[in-house]
Write a structure and sequence with these properties.
Number of helices: 2
Radius of gyration: 16 Å
Shape: elongated
Structural class: alpha+beta
Number of domains: 1
Helix content: 25-40%
Number of strands: 5
Length: about 90
């Protein structure tokens, strides 16, 4: 059970942390708004899903840029995780 769910069960309103997803590909795209998630694991799953969508678009253009990545930062600007495009897919064949 996540902290947020546990707090809600006992009637405490919990504030979810905000995570920022900065894309580093052919140029740096900084996330100015962020997203609220209960924990880093959920934020990382969000980053992985977004990377896979970006890769689909790149494949349509005939390229697979595995060296690109997303930094996940907290509200204080600390990098909590870096998710590379390479680690989100398995290349077979």
């Amino acid at each position: 059970m996540h902290v947020v769910e546990a707090a809600q069960e006992i009637g405490i309103e919990a504030v979810m942390p905000r995570f920022f997803f900065h894309l580093h590909n052919d140029m740096d795209v900084l996330d100015e708004e962020g997203q609220d998630f209960p924990d880093l694991q959920t934020a990382r799953a969000f980053a992985v899903a977004n990377i896979r969508e970006l890769l689909c678009e790149d494949v349509q253009r005939g390229r697979v840029p595995l060296q690109h990545w997303i930094d996940i930062e907290d509200e204080a600007g600390a990098v909590l995780a870096a998710v590379t495009f390479r680690e989100t897919v398995t290349i077979e064949g």
